[in-house]
Design goal:
The complex is a heterodimer of chains A (305) and B (41). Chain A is mostly helical and 305 residues long. Chain A is built from 13 helices and no strands. Helix content of chain A is 72%, strand content 0%. The N and C termini of chain A lie far apart (61 Å). Chain B has 41 residues and is mainly alpha-helical. The model of chain B has no long low-confidence stretch (mean pLDDT 93). Chain B has one domain. The chains are: A mainly alpha (305), B mainly alpha (41). Chains A and B meet through helix 3 of A and helix 1 of B.
Amino acid sequence: MTSATARPLPAEWRDFFALTKPRVMTLVIFTGLCGLLAAPGHIHPVLGFTAILCIALGAGGAATLNQWWEAGIDAGMKRTAGRPIPSGRMAPTNARDFGIALSVASVLIMGLGIGWLAATILLVSILYYAVVYTIWLKPRTPQNIVIGGGAGAFPPMIGWVAVTGHVTLMPVLLFAIIFMWTPPHFWALALFIKSDYAKVGIPMMPVVRGQASTRKQILAYTVLLVPIAGAPWFIGETGAIYGVTALALSLLFLALSLPVAFRRSEDGDAMKPEKRLFAFSIIYLFALFAALVVDRIAAHQGIFA
Amino acid sequence: MTPEEETEFRRRQRGRNLALGGLLVFLAILFYAITLVKIGS
């Protein structure tokens, strides 16, 4: 048995599952499903399920590749040091191969089962997150969250295109909504969570440009979000159910970001406005996309063939 | 390898094999269903 003593323990399947960031994936699945359900036209439930599965697999693959690349960074931060690779429970190459396998499988199944346009956008989203964001821009610019938000904005667009087969203004608007939503969502969190990003050389906005600048930028994005979230109604692609809900939610989001934008925090500050804004940002996205689906169902356009 | 390590090794191996086997069965059923839907339409 001497030769076997050097053999490392194989990683548990749970560690592979953890690499796919299951909690982030719930939001990906929800927004992807809403894009699919809100799109005009019909898709067979089996194919709709396959499309959502592929979006989830692709997101899992990209998340895995992200953790493979950032294992060194993750090891230096308390929040992430326990992840499968930095904790030593999994060999980096295993994670890399798992991430590539998930990504390739998701794109191929999407292409063969649903359509190659949806598959192409899925591939672009994976490469965008794993390469453009993780490898290239995240360590280089404090706008990294803005860029990373682009990756999170793809799922509803892919869900929509899986049904319609072509890119129109609506899926682009759904993309733009999540794109504008991400910076205030994340920076609100970054203001009240003491992170150790600075220690590992990731330039997060509050650390690099300071609190005051971050607060102003949060406001800028929530202001931009109001017309963009309302746009699907303004251009007549949705009814008043979505329109009124979107405007009410967006104005409330804006109202909550005002106190965040125009205050400074001292040491020992309870950070109530920032925590409130962050908590609401999550409700905002779920409620907005749910309203989109309810609006479509109410318009009797039909969902499934 | 101590007997304890050997047991743990086998336990993890079994867990991974079951997960992979389940995944393959799931994919086989999914591809079958997709095929039926595509032939039907």
